[in-house]
Amino acid sequence: MIKFENVSMIYSNGTPALNDVSLQINDGEFVFIVGHSGAGKTTLTRLLICEERVSAGRLEVNGFHLEKIRSWRIPKLRRTMGVVFQDFKLFDKMTVYENVAFAMRVVGAKPKLIKKRVPFFLDIVGLSHKSDSFPTELSGGEKQRVAFARALVNNPDTVIADEPTGNVDIQMSEGIMELLMKINKLGKTVIVVTHDMSLIQAYKKRVVQIENGKIVADTNGADFDIKSMMTSTENGAFDGGEIR
User: Fold this and answer.
1) Angle CA(15)–CA(20)–CA(23) in degrees, nearest 5?
2) What is the pTM of this model?
3) Which of 35, 83, 166, 201 is at a distance of 20 to 30 A from 111, taking alpha carbons?
């Protein structure tokens, strides 16, 4: 479970990023986090993986209390989470297999377990045939799927996808979203940070909207008023169905 209780976060230069946020995401939920650039959604995700620390309030993630977590426990927290970054963060000099295996090696997994799990998750994302390829030989969609395999291979409780469809075409976007749905059906909590309003319209999942560091909407995607959000967003933050 993920639970924000009156969480605020202020950067060291005095810039406020989140203001009195309360939010609960239950185990096994699928949630979209939306908001224009600078709204606070990136800060929210950085708090979840403890790249930033809570300034005030309480934050519980998968049994860890992050407002008081000690540094030595942060790696244990991160083992419960799989993060797929927008820029993939793959190692160009490692093969697909090695990129996924690396995630297991850094947490001390035994070679026998690595040999068993890596092919399994490459099969889940449909890349068994690319096991020996290097990232430079892959399409954007294939790189994204390698990133998903790496995020899943340590069997996390929660998967966070940062703009998972931002660098791929419409067809690849649909494939990635179906993969996320498949991950969710495995019982994983899935959090998708996105600018793409078409995803919300298509998949009808829970939507949490952040503006100016506050949650301004929390509803089912079927009930989410995109037109109203476009109208109320300042300075033309929305255009063509996307948040900038």
Assistant:
1) 125
2) 0.85
3) 83
Nearest to 47 by CA among 56, 35, 37: 56
pLDDT tens per residue, range 58-104: 999 999 999 999 999 999 999 999 998 877 889 999 999 999 999 99
- Using DSSP's 3-state secondary structure scheme, residue 203 falls into helix
Is residue 227 exposed (0-12), middle (13-18) or buried (19+ Cβ within 10 Å)? Answer: exposed
Long-range contacts of 118-123 (CB under 8 A, 24+ apart): 118/149, 118/153, 121/149, 121/152, 121/153, 122/96, 122/97, 122/149
**What do you get for the CA distance between the two ends of the chain, in Å?**
30
Between strands 238-239 and 56-61, the pairing is unpaired
For strands 56-61 and 2-10, give the pairing: antiparallel
CA 164 from centre of chain = 8
Q: What is the pLDDT of residues 10-48, one digit of tens each?
A: 988 888 999 999 999 999 999 999 988 888 988 999 999
Alpha helices in the chain, H assignment, sequence order: 41-48, 74-79, 96-105, 111-124, 140-152, 170-185, 197-203, 226-232
Number of H helices, E strands in the chain: 8, 12
